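$ ./design --mode recover --in tokens.txt
reading tokens...
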């Protein structure tokens, strides 16, 4: 893990993603209510909270699957907050704006394919979504479809003959194999993705997202259903992704052991509202978090020291 001093400042000083005053309403239900938080560049940020707190809804808003009722979601390439570029894009109604420092993207204005391809924010799903009938390798090539089509000049002739397409195709296969090696699935490359065991499918989903070369990787409960060994391997893999590729990770996770071990920054949601935000140590000891996880309304009712101990050591903390 990075040092505390660095990570305490990173999400404020160098946010790769900011969610500002986000609200999402489904009919009469306000699933997200005026939520703001930052994701630091190079951090592993955990978004946690009891069942139904709104975590997946945040991901759906960030990745363009839902159009938020209100709020601004900014992704940044290049260092710093780039406030002037963000203000310029907001004022002029643009979806993104390039500046000397990099580029900023207003995700709430962008469709999902632009968010993954241009803003470079990729995701995995709580319920695995692979092409089960396609092979493992094909799943990773489909993810790179956009790059291949650009190389083809969007023509059949290009696909059949252009050297740029052949080169791009080779590069796509090389990238797919690279990630298959890192998730230990090279031997299964030609098998149907739907035939893989559950844990392998989860890792394949992460490999598929990484084939998009994301700046931000959003993982919705990647450790769900994994055994302790697989879960420990996943932690190492996430650190590898962050350390070697500089990818910032936003992680929804129920296993508090995982969260406390690998997160630089933890944001806690309950009923669509942020109740805590800080480094893992601060959040773990926050009475509001303890109350939310144990379903206790009145902080005074909690025997805090014991509960704290439970929470810090717990695997699979109870929800609601
Ligand atoms: N498409 C939708 N239409 C209506 N209500 C929805 C929709 N998506 C989510 N909700 C509601 O919004 C609230 C938040 O749901 P969400 O799935 O974001 O929670 P979560 O924190 O991811 O929960 P879990 O830990 O169980 O995955 C819930 O009350 C849910 O029923
Ligand atoms: Mg969810």
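writing sequence...
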């Amino acid at each position: 893990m990075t040092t505390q001093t660095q990570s305490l400042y990173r999400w404020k000083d160098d946010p790769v993603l900011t969610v500002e005053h986000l609200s999402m309403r489904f009919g009469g239900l306000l699933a997200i209510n005026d939520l703001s938080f930052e994701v630091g560049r190079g951090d592993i940020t955990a978004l946690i909270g009891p069942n139904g707190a709104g975590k997946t809804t945040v991901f759906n808003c960030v990745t363009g699957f839902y159009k938020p009722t209100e709020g601004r979601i900014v992704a940044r390439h290049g260092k710093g907050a780039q406030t002037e570029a963000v203000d310029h894009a907001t004022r002029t109604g643009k979806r993104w704006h390039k500046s000397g420092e990099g580029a900023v993207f207003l995700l709430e204005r962008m469709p999902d394919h632009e968010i993954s391809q241009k803003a470079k924010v990729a995701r995995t799903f709580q319920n695995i979504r692979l092409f089960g009938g396609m092979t493992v390798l094909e799943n990773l090539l489909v993810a790179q479809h956009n790059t291949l089509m650009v190389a083809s000049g969007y023509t059949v002739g290009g696909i059949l003959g252009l050297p740029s397409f052949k080169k791009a195709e080779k590069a796509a296969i090389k990238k797919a194999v690279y990630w298959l090696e890192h998730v230990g699935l090279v031997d299964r490359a030609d098998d149907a993705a739907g035939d893989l065991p559950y844990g392998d499918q989860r890792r394949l989903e992460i490999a598929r997202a990484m084939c998009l070369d994301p700046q931000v990787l959003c993982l919705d409960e990647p450790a769900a259903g994994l055994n302790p060994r697989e879960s420990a391997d996943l932690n190492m893999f996430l650190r590898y992704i962050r350390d070697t590729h500089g990818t910032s990770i936003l992680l929804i996770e129920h296993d508090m052991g995982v969260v406390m071990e690998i997160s630089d920054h933890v944001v806690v949601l309950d009923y669509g509202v942020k109740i805590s935000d800080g480094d893992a140590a601060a959040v773990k000891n926050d009475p509001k978090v303890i109350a939310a996880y144990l379903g206790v309304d009145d902080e005074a009712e909690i025997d805090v020291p014991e509960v704290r101990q439970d929470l810090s050591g717990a695997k699979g903390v109870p929800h609601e």
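exit 0
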